[in-house]
C-alpha cells in the first residue's frame, strides 16, 4: 500500500501541524510506502535522515517556494499554479493508493488530487483547515459568479473524498449548508507544539504570534496600541511573524521602546518568545469564523498565556474564551482595546507557579487520528 501526503507547509517550518504530518508519515512508513509533496528551501530528506538516525524511508518530492507570507496575491496565484503542476507530476510518479490533502493551499491543489483519484480510482482524505473561496473573498473582491463556480467545484471535491476532516462545528455547518452531503464529517482539533509549558516569570505584556494581516484586524489593533503607547502606556507588546503589516510593525518597533517586532521565526523560537508574556492576542474578523479558526489558540495555551480575543461577543470564539475562564473577549474597536490595555496594566503580576489547565491534542494524537482515518479508507 502506498500513501501520499500533500501540504505546501511541512516540517520543520510549519510548527505543530508540520510536525504532526511528519509523525504521520513516519508511522505509515513502518509498513507502507510513503511520499510527501511539499515546498521547502531545505533538503528535507537529509534533515529527516539526520533526525531519524538514517533509518527514514520517506520519499520527499519537494518544490522550491516562490513566495513569503508578505507576497502579493498575484505571486501567490502563480505559486499555486506552479505547485499544482508539481503535485500532478508527483502523483503520476508515486502512484499512491491513498492521498492526504489539506487546504494548504486551497481549491486548486485538492481539485488536482480529486481528479487524479477519480481517473485512477484511488481514495483521498480532505482536511479542511479553512473554507474557500469564502475565506479568500473576505480579503479580495471576487465576482459572485466566480465564487459560485469555485464553491461548486470544491463541493464536488468534498463529496468525492473518502473522508472529510475539519476543525469546528461552525465550519461543519458551513460545509453542510453549502451542499456537502457528508453528514459524518470528522471534527478534529489541530495539535499544540507541547502539551503544557510551565509559567515562567512573565512580562506584563501582550504577544501576538502569527500572520499579521487584514483578517487579523491589524489596522484596529495597531491603531489602538499606538494611541495607548502615545499616552504613556506601560504594557509591553511583542509581535512575532510576518504579513502585509510587516512594514508598520517595523516602524512601531523603532518608535516605541515598549514595542518589539521579532519578524518570522521557526515554531520552537516562536513558542519560547510567546511563553515569556502574560497575554496572547487573538484578533480575528468575525465573519472568518464560519470558514476558519485561529490556529494560534493551542500555541498560546501551550505557552501558558491568558488569551485576549478581539472579535464580536456573539461569536463561538468569544463565547469559548470567556466560558473557559482562560481569557476575555474585546469588541473590535480602537477605544475598547485601549480600555482593555489600561485595565491589564493595572493588574498585579502573576506568580510563576501555575501551568495551563486546558489541553489540546498533542502531535502524537494528531498523527494517530489521521493514521486511523487514512487506514479506514482502505477497509
Count of DSSP strands: 13
**Euclidean distance between termini CA atoms:** 12 Å
Strand content: 15-25%
Output the helix-strand order.
Answer: EHEHEHEHEHHEHEEHEHEHEHEHEHH
CATH topology name of the largest domain, in short, is Rossmann fold
Q: Calculate the mean pLDDT score and round it.
A: 90
Apparent shape: globular
CATH architecture of the largest domain: 3-Layer(aba) Sandwich
Domains (count)? 2
Q: What's the CATH C level of the largest domain?
A: Alpha Beta
Q: Ranges with pLDDT <50 over ≥5 residues?
A: none
User: How many individual helices?
Assistant: 14
Major sheet: order of its strands?
A: 3-2-1-4-5-6-7
Helix content: 40-55%
Give structural notes:
With 379 residues, the protein is an alpha/beta fold. It has 2 domains: 2-191 and 361-378, 3-Layer(aba) Sandwich (Rossmann fold), CATH 3.40.50.2000; 203-345, Glycogen Phosphorylase B (Rossmann fold, 3-Layer(aba) Sandwich). Helices cover 43% and strands 18% of the residues. The chain contains 14 helices and 13 strands. It has helices at 15-29, 44-52, 73-94, 108-120, 134-137, 144-160, 169-177, 218-230, 246-255, 267-274, 297-302, 316-323, 334-345, 363-378, and strands at 2-6, 33-39, 59-63, 98-102, 123-128, 163-166, 186-187, 203-209, 236-240, 259-263, 277-283, 306-310, 327-330. The strands form 2 sheets. The protein has a 7-stranded parallel sheet with strand order 3-2-1-4-5-6-7, with helices on both faces. Strands 10-9-8-11-12-13 form a 6-stranded parallel sheet, with helices on both faces. Helix 12 (316-323) links the parallel strand 12 and strand 13. Helix 3 (73-94) runs parallel beside helix 4 and helix 8 packs across helix 13 (334-345). The chain starts with a strand and ends with a helix. The model has no long low-confidence stretch (mean pLDDT 90).
Amino acid at each position: 500500500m502506498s500513501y501520499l501526503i500533500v501540504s505546501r507547509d511541512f516540517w520543520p517550518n510549519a510548527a505543530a501541524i508540520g510536525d504532526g504530518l511528519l509523525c504521520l508519515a513516519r508511522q505509515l512508513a513502518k509498513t507502507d510506502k510513503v511520499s510527501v509533496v511539499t515546498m521547502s528551501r531545505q533538503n528535507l530528506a537529509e534533515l529527516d535522515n539526520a533526525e531519524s538516525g538514517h533509518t527514514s524511508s520517506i520519499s520527499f518530492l519537494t518544490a522550491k517556494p516562490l513566495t513569503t507570507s508578505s507576497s502579493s496575491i498575484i505571486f501567490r496565484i502563480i505559486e499555486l499554479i506552479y505547485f499544482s503542476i508539481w503535485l500532478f507530476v508527483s502523483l503520476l510518479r508515486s502512484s499512491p493508493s491513498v492521498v492526504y490533502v489539506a487546504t494548504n493551499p486551497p481549491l486548486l491543489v485538492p481539485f488536482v488530487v480529486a481528479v487524479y483519484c477519480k481517473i485512477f480510482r484511488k481514495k483521498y482524505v480532505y482536511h479542511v483547515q479553512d473554507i474557500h473561496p469564502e475565506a479568500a473573498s473576505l480579503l479580495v473582491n471576487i465576482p459572485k459568479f466566480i465564487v459560485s463556480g469555485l464553491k461548486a467545484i470544491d463541493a464536488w471535491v468534498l463529496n468525492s473524498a473518502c473522508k472529510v476532516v475539519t476543525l469546528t462545528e461552525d465550519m461543519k455547518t458551513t460545509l453542510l449548508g453549502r451542499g456537502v452531503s457528508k453528514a459524518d464529517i470528522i471534527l478534529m482539533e489541530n495539535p499544540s507544539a507541547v502539551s503544557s509549558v510551565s509559567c515562567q516569570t512573565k512580562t506584563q505584556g501582550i504577544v501576538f504570534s502569527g500572520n499579521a494581516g487584514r483578517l487579523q484586524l491589524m489596522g484596529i489593533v495597531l491603531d489602538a496600541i499606538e494611541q495607548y503607547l502615545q499616552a504613556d502606556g506601560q504594557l509591553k507588546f511583542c509581535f512575532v511573524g510576518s504579513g502585509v503589516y510587516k512594514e508598520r510593525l517595523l516602524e512601531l518597533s523603532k518608535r516605541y521602546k515598549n514595542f518589539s517586532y521579532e519578524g518570522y521565526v521557526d515554531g520552537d523560537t516562536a513558542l519560547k518568545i510567546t511563553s515569556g508574556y502574560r497575554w496572547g492576542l487573538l484578533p480575528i474578523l468575525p465573519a472568518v469564523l464560519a470558514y476558519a479558526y485561529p490556529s494560534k489558540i493551542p500555541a498560546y495555551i501551550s505557552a501558558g498565556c491568558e488569551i485576549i480575543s478581539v472579535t464580536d461577543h456573539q461569536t463561538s470564539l468569544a463565547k469559548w474564551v470567556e466560558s473557559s475562564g482562560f481569557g476575555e473577549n474585546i469588541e473590535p474597536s480602537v477605544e475598547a482595546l485601549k480600555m482593555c490595555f489600561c485595565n491589564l496594566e493595572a493588574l498585579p503580576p502573576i506568580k510563576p507557579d501555575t501551568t495551563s489547565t486546558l489541553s489540546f491534542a498533542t502531535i502524537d494524537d494528531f498523527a494517530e487520528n489521521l493514521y486511523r482515518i487514512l487506514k479506514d479508507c482502505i477497509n
